Amino acid sequence: MIWDPRSEEGKYVRDNCKTLKEYITLNGLHNTTHFFDILKQMLMYEPKDRITATDALKHPYFNSLNSQSDISR
Fold it and tell me: What is the C-alpha separation between 36 and 20, in angstroms, rounded?
């Protein structure tokens, strides 16, 4: 997002909003790098550049979730 930090909206954003990374806590289950990578690929504006559902399921982010659930059983 681009905003003028001197405007009322910009001041609100600066004072009240956090980046996604500041909100995310993954409790040490797996590397946040995988999470941000798949999120970036899923949010690509151009559909042709966006990750497909099939490819997303093969992404290391989900592999790490599956391996963590296997460990906790």
Answer: 9
- Reading the block at residue 20, the tokens are 């996604």
Distance (Å, whole) CA 41 – CA 51: 5
Tokens of 57: 């399921």
Cα-to-chain-centroid distance, residue 31:
12
Instruction: Give the span between the Cα atoms of 44 and 42, in whole angstroms.
Output: 6
Two tokens, residue 65: 């979730």
Query: Strands, E, within the chain: which ranges?
Result: none
What string of pLDDT tens digits covers the 73 residues of the chain?
677 878 988 888 888 887 766 666 544 444 677 888 899 999 999 999 999 999 999 999 888 666 655 555 4
